[in-house]
Amino acid sequence: MSKNSGSFSGLEFPLHCYGEDGRVKPPILLYLTAFWLCKALLLTLISVSMRENTTALLTVFYPDVNEWYWHLVPALPGLVVALFVSFNATLRERQVGDWLNWVKPLLLFGLFGQMALQVKTIISLQGQFSWTLSVSLLISIIATLYIWRSRRINAFVRDARDD
């Protein structure tokens, strides 16, 4: 038996990690990380859908409008990655270059940018404790470590390169 107990075919990952075409599927945490980066955009969509007071929700999370604008910057790599990964089969059929090679660097760029903004906010608060900032920074750090070390994301990107 190989080191992957229960694996008879020598696959690198369990069978549920592969699609019908035999390629490695993107992990759920890749999508969650991309959506985590897009939280400023998601809050914008939710606040616009509120008919009574559209700015109420945004002022809770972003009291300063400039802070909201800065948080849209890391959201763009997350949105691009979500689109790339969602349309990977279509892009693969049309042979659109090495688009998937940008997934990991874009996510890391967005996460590092988001962490920099969170640290900037902590510094501007002069180290005053905030649960939302603490949890947000912790999630960003965990997501960065996951994206950096994930064998499955590396296999997903490598699998797309093998075309």
UniProtKB/TrEMBL annotation:
UniProt key word Membrane: yes
Membrane-spanning segments: 28-48, 68-87, 99-117, 129-148
Pfam family, one: DUF2919
Domain of life where this protein originates: Bacteria
Keywords: Membrane, Transmembrane, Transmembrane helix
Protein name per its UniProtKB record: DUF2919 family protein
Lineage, highest ranks first: Bacteria, Pseudomonadati, Pseudomonadota, Gammaproteobacteria, Alteromonadales
